[in-house]
Structure formats: C-alpha cells, structure tokens
Design a protein that fits this description.
By secondary structure, the protein is mostly helical. Helices cover about 35% and strands about 5% of the residues. A hairpin with a 5-residue loop joins strand 1 and strand 2. The model has no long low-confidence stretch (mean pLDDT about 80). It has a two-stranded antiparallel ribbon. Helix 4 crosses helix 5.
C-alpha cells in the first residue's frame, strides 16, 4: 500500500460518524419547531399607544404654529397688518430657563407682540399647552423651579 491510496474505512466506524453528525442536527431542528399550530398561537394585534397630546397638537396647529412654526423654532414673522415680529424659539435659548408659570402668564396675557389667549383657551388648555411645549419642543425636560415668594411680601408692617 502506498501513501497516495486511502485505507479502507470500517463500515461500523462510518455508521458511527454518520449517527454522531445526524443526532445534533435532529435535536437542533426539533427544538426550534413549535408544538402548536400557527392558528392556535395567534395573538391579538398590538394596539397603538394613544397620543396624549393629540388635542393639544390640534390647538397648537390652530393658534401657535403660524408664528412659532411646526418645529417651535420661531423666527421672523410678518403679520397680515404688515407688522414684523421676531418670534422666540420654544426649543432653545431663554425658553428653556422659564418656569411653567412664565409660560402660563405669557400665553394667558400675551405681550411682546404675542396675542393673549386667556379669553380663547381654558386654563386647563393653557396648562396642557405648556406640557405640550415641554414634551414636543424641549425633549420632556423638567422645567426650572418656580421662583420662591418672599415671606415678607404679603406681610403688613405697622
């Protein structure tokens, strides 16, 4: 026998190798199959999470978007009467440093070119508007703390 020839393989050994290779394959494929039929394993379709800001989004679109823009970035705006305004961003700058009470006051009373919405929106809607601004344009940030009132402010001195 020369080295170039392959020696004959023992049939028993060949069968043992074949079984050793086949058993893990059968175990793996058998474990990956479900015992239940696809019909019995169906789940109800996932429901979408309701948009807690849907109503406020519509209010913003109706009352605020014209000046503050879709993304809340503000910028230069020309009103119908020709007045030009530089509307501040709700996303950055000083808007991030105001407590909620400042936003409520600005929305309610207006000022600096912004109309008052106190007669047009209910107090709950104004508060929802502030929450919407914090969520939508400020990444859900925690608002700055409300300024503390001086304990002496309401006291009457003799």
């Amino acid at each position: 026998m020369t080295y170039s020839e392959n020696p004959p393989m023992n049939p028993r050994l060949l069968t043992l190798f074949a079984v050793a290779a086949l058993v893990p394959f059968l175990l793996i494929t058998g474990c990956n199959k479900s015992a239940t039929s696809p019909v019995a394993n169906t789940k109800p379709p996932a429901t979408a999470t309701p948009d807690q800001f849907a109503a406020m989004r519509a209010t913003f679109d109706k009352n605020c978007k014209r000046c503050h823009g879709e993304t809340g970035k503000g910028g230069p705006v020309k009103l119908e009467d020709g007045t030009k305004l530089k509307v501040p961003s709700l996303c950055e700058g000083h808007a991030l440093h105001h407590p909620d009470s400042d936003f409520v006051k600005q929305i309610t009373k207006g000022g600096d070119g912004m109309p008052a919405f106190g007669a047009k929106l209910k107090p709950d809607e104004i508060n929802d508007c502030v929450r919407f601004i914090r969520h939508e344009f400020q990444g859900g940030m925690t608002p700055p703390a409300e300024p503390m009132k001086s304990p002496m402010k309401d006291m009457k001195m003799k």
